[in-house]
């Protein structure tokens, strides 16, 4: 099953705000959705890596999709991750998120054991046969230890199994091969998951971008997309460089005490908290929280990017965050 036309534009992988007790904070989630919609994004991707889907219970995953689809009420397409280790488990997630209102599902290759391309093909064919909505492949070898080969993706596109691909592999040459081959498959969407080379991916012919940093600055990525589509190379380069500088906030966490995911997701949530979008910046366990000093560094990145202070485009004012971190 495919979309009638390629999915295009900026599709943020939406963060999942949590309460201090690590339950889904639905009011904050809906404020975040409003922040993204006001920023001009073209669709929403729930339950991806930036959403901390791997850390949520099945009930929390369904809660997120139900809350957002009811709130959006068809204004924008809502995609949902159906991400798990095996085909039967993914099929259960597909049933749950589509029942909750998702209009497409985003699916990785199977993981835990390393998978052969033939097994990956069977996985996607089985899921597409059972799914009532289009299936988008999620190419993220850092998480699943398997790169989706371009010929595999394009073959499944040609057979109508896949409606698109979100490429978070970092392999620009392979991405180019998919973009070039996708021209033969109308309706197939090629989306980059990179915050840092969005302009380059769009110049190659990508249909859109799925940047986690768009949670923090949706206006910036929508502006970048429009500049690229208008052919304003200099304007797009300047906006991309501003966003690259802002992306530095993902590295505020001390690598001696936390991993890159704790640092990046903690920084995204700290930024959203500082901008007044979400009530609590806590991340899911077992991720390590940012320190107060690290949060201050996030604030400095926001200020430098024009997202705090008199020139802010944010949804609210700076919150008092002294008692919200490290829980």
TrEMBL record:
Keywords: Lyase, Schiff base. The active site is at residues 138, 166. One of its GO terms (biological process) is small molecule metabolic process. CDD domains: DHDPS-like. SMART domains: DHDPS. Transmembrane segments: none annotated. The keyword Cell cycle does not apply. Pyruvate binds at residues 50, 210. One of its GO terms (molecular function) is 4-hydroxy-tetrahydrodipicolinate synthase activity. The keyword Membrane does not apply. Coiled coil: none annotated. PANTHER family: 4-HYDROXY-2-OXOGLUTARATE ALDOLASE, MITOCHONDRIAL, DIHYDRODIPICOLINATE SYNTHASE. Belongs to the DapA family. This is Dihydrodipicolinate synthase family protein. It comes from Streptomyces dangxiongensis.
């Amino acid at each position: 099953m495919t979309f009638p036309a390629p999915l295009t534009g900026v599709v943020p992988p939406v963060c999942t705000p949590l309460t201090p007790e690590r339950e889904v904070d639905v009011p904050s989630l809906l404020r975040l959705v409003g922040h993204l919609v006001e920023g001009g994004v073209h669709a929403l991707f729930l339950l991806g890596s930036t959403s901390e889907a791997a850390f949520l219970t099945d009930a929390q995953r369904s809660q997120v999709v139900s809350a957002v689809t009811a709130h959006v009420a068809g204004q924008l397409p809502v995609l949902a991750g159906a991400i798990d280790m095996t085909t039967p488990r993914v099929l259960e997630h597909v049933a749950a998120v589509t029942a909750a209102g998702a209009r497409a599902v985003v699916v990785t290759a199977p993981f835990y054991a390393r998978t052969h391309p033939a097994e990956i093909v069977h996985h996607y064919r089985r899921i597409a046969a059972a799914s009532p909505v289009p299936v988008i492949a999620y190419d993220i070898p850092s998480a699943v230890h398997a790169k989706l080969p371009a010929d595999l993706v394009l073959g499944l596109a040609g057979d109508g199994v896949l409606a698109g691909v979100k490429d978070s592999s970092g392999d620009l040459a392979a991405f180019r091969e998919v973009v070039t081959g996708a021209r033969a498959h109308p309706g197939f969407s090629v989306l980059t998951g990179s915050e840092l080379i969005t302009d380059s991916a769009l110049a190659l012919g990508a249909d859109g971008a799925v940047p986690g940093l768009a949670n923090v600055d949706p206006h910036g990525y929508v502006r970048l997309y429009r500049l690229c589509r208008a052919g304003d190379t200099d304007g797009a380069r300047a906006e991309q460089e501003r966003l690259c500088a802002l992306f530095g906030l993902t590295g505020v966490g001390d690598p001696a005490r936390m991993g890159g995911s704790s640092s990046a997701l903690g920084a995204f949530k700290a930024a959203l908290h500082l901008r007044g979008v979400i009530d609590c910046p806590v991340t899911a366990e077992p991720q390590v929280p940012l320190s107060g000093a690290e949060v201050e560094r996030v604030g400095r990145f926001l200020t430098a990017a024009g997202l705090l202070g008199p020139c802010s485009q944010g949804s609210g004012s700076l919150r008092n965050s002294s008692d919200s971190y490290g829980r």
